Amino acid sequence: VQLVESGGGLVQPGGSLKLSCVTSGFVFRDYGMSWWRQRPGKEREYVATITISGNPYYSNSVKGRFTIDRDNAQNTLSLDMNNLKSEDTAVYFCHRPGTEPAWGQGTQVTVSS
């Protein structure tokens, strides 16, 4: 099982980024998938989930600004992030929940002027 995130970087407040997570080693369409993040000095926290059927759910801190999506043909999870704030600065992780959870290595997002 592999989950490989990309798309992080440095962006100014109010800007946008799109993260991607390319997966392999399992049947992607059979799993709900999530994004988590770890801010500096904080514990890892939940960001968003997309179910097998494509229904999205968000934490209150990102609702209305972030959009989670999946492409089952490409085995890829994405996270569109808009109106970014300094408090969104974190390492973002792709996550496959379940009895055998899996995590990517993370991608750094820095929101700063």
Indicate the topology.
Blueprint: E1 2-6, E2 9-11, E3 17-24, E4 33-38, E5 44-50, E6 56-58, E7 66-71, E8 76-81, E9 90-96, E10 102-103, E11 107-111
Parallel strand pairs: 2-11
Antiparallel strand pairs: 1-3, 3-8, 4-5, 4-9, 5-6, 7-8, 9-10, 9-11
Structure notes:
With 113 residues, this protein is an all-beta fold. Strands 2, 4, 5, 6, 9, 10 and 11 form a seven-stranded mixed β-sheet that branches. Strands 1-3-8-7 form a four-stranded antiparallel β-sheet, with no helix packed on it. A hairpin with a 5-residue loop joins strand 9 and strand 10. The radius of gyration is 13 Å and the shape is globular.
Q: Helicity, in percent?
A: under 10%
What portion of the residues fall into strands of 2 or more residues?
over 45%
Which structural class fits the helix and strand makeup?
mainly beta
- What's the Cα radius of gyration? 13 Å
Number of helical runs? Answer: 0
Poorly predicted tracts of residues = none
List the helices and strands in order. Answer: EEEEEEEEEEE
User: What value does the average pLDDT take?
Assistant: 97
Kindly report how far apart the N and C termini lie.
37 Å
| Record field, number of beta strands | 11
Q: Tell me about the biggest sheet?
A: 7 strands, mixed
What spatial form do the alpha-carbon principal axes imply?
A: globular
Descriptors for this entry?
single chain; 113 residues; mainly beta; seven-stranded mixed β-sheet; four-stranded antiparallel β-sheet; globular
Question: TL;DR?
Answer:
The protein is mainly beta and 113 residues long.
